[in-house]
Amino acid sequence: MDEAMIRCKSKFAVIKQRMPAKPVRMGIKNFCLCDAEFGYCYAFEFFMGKGSLAAEDELTVTSALVKRLVLQLPTSGYVVAMDNYFSAPSLFAKLSRDYLLNCVGTCRGNRIPKEIGKIQERHLDRGEIVTVSVSNPDKTPMTLSAWRDNGLVKILSTFHRHAEAVVKINR
């Protein structure tokens, strides 16, 4: 699951977006659900502006978008990988519980459950890895792994099941 830009220089494209930090700075933004091995695009949705996206149930706008695209997969049992723009514990729990889909993704610090905030408080040396197994309030098992590279990188997963462990890797 990721976002992509389709290069477009037309003056008449109403849905054209400008993102100066991306390799394609001007174009049509869309959200894609692709196969990791072959790159086949299963589903996509164009970004038509902020008003075109809507939240559902207890999900945020981006989580509802991921759910809509993932439900177009042919069967259940997939592992959906995404970056920190889409990752949220509530989305991971819903997809795992209701649709039998596992999720893996980098996670922003403000989205991780409060009971595992100790990873943020703990100082990790470069190359040190911490893995914590947790449950959401609805008892969906998740694993949060964090390691220090140039910054603190956090990965949230419903696919990987680990007990709490601390591993130090010398580079």
Q: Could you give a short description of this structure?
A:
It is built from 3 helices and 10 strands, in the order ββββαβαβαββββ.
Written overview of the protein:
By secondary structure, the protein is an alpha+beta fold. The chain has helices at 61-70, 89-99, 118-121; strands at 2-7, 16-18, 26-34, 41-46, 79-82, 102-106, 128-135, 141-148, 152-157, 165-168. The strands form two sheets. It has a six-stranded mixed β-sheet, with helices on one face.
Low-pLDDT sequence parts: none
Portion of residues in beta strands equals 25-35%
Shape by Cα distribution:
globular
> Which structural category fits the helices and strands?
alpha+beta
- The number of distinct β-strands equals 10
- Count of DSSP-assigned helices: 3
H-E string: EEEEHEHEHEEEE
Could you give the distance between the termini?
31 Å
Please give the order of strands in the largest beta sheet.
5-6-9-8-7-10
Q: What's the gyration radius in Å?
A: 18 Å
Percent helix range: 10-25%
Largest sheet: 6 strands, mixed
State mean pLDDT (0 to 100 scale). Answer: 83
Please give the structural blueprint.
Elements: E1 2-7, E2 16-18, E3 26-34, E4 41-46, H1 61-70, E5 79-82, H2 89-99, E6 102-106, H3 118-121, E7 128-135, E8 141-148, E9 152-157, E10 165-168
Parallel strand pairs: 5-6
Antiparallel strand pairs: 1-3, 2-3, 3-4, 6-9, 7-8, 7-10, 8-9
List keywords for this structure.
171 residues; alpha+beta; 4-stranded antiparallel beta sheet; 10 strands; 15% helix; 35% strand
